[in-house]
């Protein structure tokens, strides 16, 4: 079974497809002046775009790992997350808090999805 690396850079690929599974790298917001709601919305839009490029969509997400700099932001993040998913099946998910991300980044999300 082949492995396809999409949008590869010096240290990582934006996505890797192996069989019927899509692995996205950790995605962060471009606009670091946004609050947690805005940053989460931007990252989720990036996930939509990357999954579409790989022949998948958010309804097929199997798991998500979310990194936040402050767990106090988790309730706001969760509201955006629930709104984005709608009534779709909920994936397995972990939310890791109190970690240092790039300057100005409040959230980073990495997902694995079926095709």
Explain what you see:
By secondary structure, the chain is α+β, with helices and mostly antiparallel strands. The protein has one domain (3-114): 60s Ribosomal Protein L30, Chain: A (2-Layer Sandwich). The protein contains 2 helices and 6 strands; from the N terminus they run E-E-E-H-E-H-E-E. Strands 1-2-3-6-4-5 form a 6-stranded mixed β-sheet, with helices on one face. Strand 4 (61-68), helix 2 (74-85) and strand 5 (92-96) form a beta-alpha-beta unit. Helix 1 (36-53) runs parallel beside helix 2 (74-85). The longest helix has 18 residues, at 36-53. The two termini are 15 Å apart. The relative contact order is 0.26.
In short:
With 115 residues, the protein is α+β, with helices and mostly antiparallel strands. It is built from two helices and six strands.
List the main descriptive attributes of the protein structure presented here.
single chain, 6-stranded mixed sheet, 115 residues, 26% helix, 2 helices, globular, alpha+beta, 6 strands, 60s Ribosomal Protein L30, Chain: A
